[in-house]
Amino acid sequence: MNLSENDLWLLSYYRSSEINGALFFGRVARTMRPSKLQAEVTHHFADEAQHARYWTECINDLDCDPVKLRGSYQDQYLQAAGMPANLMEVMAITQVFEKRVIGQYHQHLKAPGLHPRIRQTIERIMEDERWHIKYVRDALTEMEGRYDAAHVAETVERFSQADQEVYAKTLAEYGERVAFLRAEAEAR
Amino acid sequence: MTVEVGSLRRATSDSDSAIRPQNAIPVLLVASEASLDVGALTAGESTQLAALPGASRGALWLTARRALRLALAGTGRPTDTSAHRFPSPVASLSHSADLAVAAVLAADHDGVAGVGVDIELDRVPDPRTASFFLTESERGWLDSVPTDEVPAELTRLWTVKEALFKADPGNADTALRDYEVADPAAMDGRATRPGEIDFQYVSLARPRGVLSVALALSESWKVDPVQTVDFDLMASRISSLISVPIERLAPDATIAELVPDSFMFIEVAVDLQEEFDVILSQHDLRDVHTLGDLAQLLRSRQAEQANV
Q1: CATH number for the domain including A93?
Q2: CA–CA separation, B308 and B296 (whole Å)
Q3: Does the beta carbon of B287 lie under 8 angstroms from any beta carbon of chain A?
């Protein structure tokens, strides 16, 4: 076995969150009318499912099996910020979440002694994540006319605050498993 | 063959730039290289043929009329082609080389004001003529196209413009450059004669050239209203989303019991807003407990937002 228990848990947590992301965007995609945005959300849905597969393969290549985890980061978002009530709010929470994902993966890349196979997986996923940020940002800009620019900004801010709460709570809850993240957060 | 030309629906947001694809409209295309037998012409067709100057013009006309007859028959319409005047809300004709093509709406559609088709085979417009049929922005796009692709793109845009012109019921005083496509690179998409009429078109690559079909959109179609909130319709959509029999979805049914999964509730909320073209907030949803509450909320938001 090439993974510590904590590493296995963390990679499985990533995998579980990607699966939940895929399920979420799949559901959003099927509610939307055909449009450019729907095509992008569908693409996003497919990306998240692929990312889950990448993590499964990565874990398997390191001679482990993923751990089945029920909760995910997204679940906690809904508790902290409330459910997104419309398409703009879905995009707003997605933007905040995607930024968090990129930040998280970026920090993980800086973890000492990172296994090359894990690095490869994160870098592969981050290529897609950059596009996710861009299309969601563009969608929110386009929605400013219908939803009001100030309201869009407030919504993003509300979800950003929730994100910080959830992240702090996650670090507190799983501090031992993600020590390298906590050390970095405390250093700020 | 049948092609589907994207239909349009009223925008539900500013981001949708006025129109958005919804249900495609089928158009039957029939090509013919053979002529219609003169002996089979109706009286009206015979009169029209007799009025044409020259034998070669007559031969082309007969080939086109054969294609049109077949297309009319294929869509279940009377086959006397002399009953159709162009621009037509139902049919259009084009020919190139020895081939004629007829385009006929598969079924009558209130939203279609005109049909246009154009085919070009074995011919490329002279690039110097681009300013006569392309707008400035379209020419700007063409300048960005790799040199070896310019002839094909120019031909495609020519057929698009011709199809738009033919589809336009008010084309008497228009020129091809009066029509503008939303995305010159797109094989299918939107076009407009600004301030007058909107179109949807599709282009198809053919072995020796290209063919385009356009539909002009009537005002009634452009303002196709979104669904009015009706409890049964709302319940029907929810039923299909959450896989609960519609009989259980009474106005006093509690949402928390029906949709305990929060992700599923988001799906239901977004779906209903998309369907009924309303915006709901978290605050709105906080006060909603039953399906009856939800229907009432959707109705009141729809009324409010329609008056904005």
Answers
A1: 1.20.1260.10
A2: 19
A3: no
> Exposure of A85 by Cβ count < 10 A (0-12 exposed, 13-18 middle, 19+ buried)?
buried
In angstroms, the CA B231 to CA A71 distance is 35
B267 to A139: CB separation less than 8 angstroms, yes or no:
no
Count of structural domains, chain A: 1
Residue of chain B minimizing CA distance to A140: B15
Candidates B266, B267, B272: best to mutate against A (most CBs of A within 10 A) is: B266
Per-residue tens of pLDDT for chain B, all 308 residues? 766 666 433 333 333 333 333 456 889 999 999 998 889 898 888 888 888 877 777 888 899 999 999 999 998 888 899 888 888 989 999 988 788 999 999 887 778 899 999 999 988 888 888 888 999 999 999 999 999 999 999 999 999 999 999 999 988 888 899 999 999 999 988 899 988 889 999 999 888 899 999 999 886 444 444 567 788 888 988 998 888 888 889 999 999 888 877 778 888 999 899 888 889 988 888 888 999 999 999 988 888 876 55
The amino acid at residue A13 is Y
* Identity of the amino acid at A94: T
Classify residue B159 by burial, with Cβ atoms within 10 Å: 0-12, 13-18, 19+: buried
Residue B265 near residue A83 (C-beta atoms within 8 A): yes
Residue of B nearest to A147 (CA): B279
Structural domain range at position A90: 5-187
A62 burial level (CB within 10 Å; 0-12, 13-18, 19+): middle
Tell me the C-alpha distance between A164 and B242, whole Å. Answer: 32
Provide ipTM, 2 decimals: 0.77
In the sheet where B25-32 sits, what is the strand order?
B2-5, B25-32, B99-105, B91-96
Pairwise CA distance, residues B280 & B269, whole Å: 8
Q: Is the dihedral of CA B172, B175, B178, B181 positive or negative?
A: positive
Encoded tokens for A137? 């940002």
Say if B182 is an interface residue toward chain A (CB within 8 Å): no
Tokens of B29: 């295309």
User: What's the token pair of residue B238?
Assistant: 């929810």
Residue pair A81/A169 in contact by the 8 Å Cβ criterion: no
C-alpha span between A38 and B34 (Å, rounded): 45
* Cα–Cα distance, B31 to A12 (Å, whole number): 59
User: Which chain A residues contact residue B267 at CB under 8 A?
Assistant: 27-28, 30-31
Structural domains of chain B, ranges and CATH numbers in brackets: 2-222 (3.90.470.20), 231-306 (1.10.1200.10)
Q: Smallest Cα–Cα separation from B174: which of B164, B187, B160, B184?
A: B164
- Cβ-Cβ contacts under 8 Å, A31 against chain B: 241, 267, 270-271, 274
Residues of chain A with C-beta less than 8 angstroms from the C-beta of B262: 78, 83
What is the identity of the amino acid at B178? D
For residue B193, the Cα-to-chain-centroid distance in whole angstroms is 15
